[in-house]
């Protein structure tokens, strides 16, 4: 049962946490768990699924931060984490995702360190950014403390 290449379990009212044994699916290309009631953290073991081209975990109740191990998914073309309860910084390891074309992080409480050279390279490496919604965090001493922190974002890249 570990030789799946595509596993779609979206819109099935699945609940609980994402099981760690999902990391045994070493040859999986597409993993779709969107539109369920999954909760807890995104397992770091997902970073071991280096053959993944698409990972869909959106519209669940996932919380905590995005694990930096997802930056190991160098074959990833699409990553959907929309509408969860994720918070914190987008990992700088996302600069390793050189094949990424679609990144959807809307509907979370995430921020990005724009000053990070890896992230700047990653954003500038793409030829066309179709949508990028980012509100920058301004230090209180700059006099703009009323601006919200960074809200991140859906980026679609196109060659």
Evaluate the radius of gyration.
Answer: 16 Å
CATH topology: Leucine-rich repeat, LRR (right-handed beta-alpha superhelix)
Q: Which structural class matches the secondary elements?
A: mainly beta
> Residue ranges: pLDDT <50 for 5 or more in a row?
125-159
Task: Report the strand count.
Answer: 11
CATH class: Alpha Beta
The overall pLDDT, averaged over residues, is: 78
Largest sheet: 6 strands, mixed
Report the CATH architecture. Alpha-Beta Horseshoe
Strand order in the largest sheet? 1-3-5-7-9-11
Kindly give the count of domains: 1
- CATH evolutionary superfamily: Ribonuclease Inhibitor
Q: Outline, from the CA principal axes?
A: globular
Q: β content, as a range? A: 15-25%
Please estimate the helix content: under 10%
The N- and C-terminal alpha carbons lie at a distance of 36 Å
The SSE string, one letter per element, is EEEEEEEEEEHE
User: Total number of helical segments?
Assistant: 1
Keywords:
disordered C terminus, leucine-rich repeat, repeat, mainly beta, 11 strands, 159 residues, 6-stranded mixed β-sheet, glycoprotein, 5-stranded parallel β-sheet, Leucine-rich repeat, LRR (right-handed beta-alpha superhelix), receptor
């Amino acid at each position: 049962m570990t030789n799946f290449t595509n596993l779609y379990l979206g819109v099935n009212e699945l609940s609980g946490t994402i099981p760690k044994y999902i990391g045994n699916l070493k040859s999986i290309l597409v993993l779709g768990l969107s539109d369920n009631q999954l909760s807890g953290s995104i397992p770091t073991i997902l970073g071991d699924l280096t053959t993944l081209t698409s990972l869909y975990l959106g519209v669940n109740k996932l919380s905590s931060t995005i694990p930096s191990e997802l930056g190991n998914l160098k074959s990833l073309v699409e990553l959907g984490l929309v509408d969860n309860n994720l918070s914190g910084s987008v990992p700088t390891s996302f600069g390793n995702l050189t094949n990424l074309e679609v990144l959807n992080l809307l509907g979370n409480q995430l921020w990005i360190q724009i000053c990070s050279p890896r992230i700047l390279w990653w954003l500038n490496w793409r030829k066309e950014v179709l949508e990028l919604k980012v509100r920058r965090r301004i230090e209180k001493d700059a006099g703009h403390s009323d601006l919200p922190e960074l809200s991140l974002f859906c980026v679609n890249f196109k060659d």
